[in-house]
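Slides due. Your pick:
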Amino acid sequence: MNTRVDRHFIIAAYYFPPLGMAGTARPLAMANFLAEQGFEVSVLTVKPIAYPVHDQTQIESLHPNVKVHRAGSSDPDRLAMMVPFLKSLIKLRRRSGKSASSLIFPDSKVGFVRPASALLKTLIRADMQNVLITTSPPVSIHQLGLNIAGQGSIAWIADFRDVWGSLSLDDQSDAFRAKAESYLTEITDAANLITATSPLTIDYLQTEINAAADYHFLPNGYDESDFTLPVAEHNQYLGLYGTLNHLVGIERLFDWMSVLRKSTPDLDTSVRHIGHLDLPNLDGLLARYGMRNDFLSVGYLPHHESIQAVRCHAANIIMLSDELDTSYIIPSKLFELLRAEPPLIAILPPGNAARLLLEEYSFSDVFVIDSAAELGDVLNRLHSHSSKQMRTGVARFERREEMSALLNRLEEFL
């Protein structure tokens, strides 16, 4: 593919390394790939904020030609960094279930928009074709694109990791939902291209918001370079990977394992979690289902360590709650779990975007299950035979392949 060094990409991402967790991996991968292709790349992100996880190894992996520019903000997480006592107030509000995003429109990060917009103006190059990529959440980041839409020297890609937040807009008030849909209409009208991590997000935007916009499915994918080292050891854990919060619906797995223990007293299967813990009632669930000795969380690990760890498990689990509307969600770690060698157990609601993808591709050693009995069948199969090798068809989701396809799509309007 021919590169054009006279093209300047500006990636606007509120969440960016050294912040950790899944949301920062996508803009980091975008920036690194584009820089490798010879483009000039600038990242526009926020100054340090109060945040539960930092991963310095991620910022160390940033391509040397990527320039990172940080703007101030008056949002709660930035203010909590500057005024420490606010951290406890924000944490208390989150644990009470009262999200500032439902009280402030379009979300609690709107205080980043004005400083970021001022900085963005200084980044636009008069001697280059500029391409702005705004990646949400927070959805307020797309205001940067709306502010420059229509200027001849810049094209705009609006990238959606979620429709709005983690869940659909159905749990909001009618008034909030109407404002949100109007805002989404503005975005899809003005952007040159809409990208999304889930086909169901695209379906929603296309059918409910704007049928005339241009859309492109851009999954989170995985980096093949993460899997070059040999696996140092193997264990018999079932691995659970990523932030453990209410969206995961871990109680269903605990319930099934409790049922299996009653029918199979000698069942010797434990769950090891790798990632951030954000589940205040976890201790109660462990006690209720007798899982205290069968659940271990090692916490968040730096990216490359977590990749190695997840390759060691007897099998990995990907799951989402069936009590919430998680239909749009494709967990960002899905593709790394597919690329990893251990079998994958998928506990996903019918109609969920990740489940639909797994059903479409029919990858080997991927078991989509809906009951304790099916879990028992899979565990018996794993104990008798477990192949660990790269799955056919997964390479289609390698990030370099996905980003190359995006660049080809951009040529249609640049």
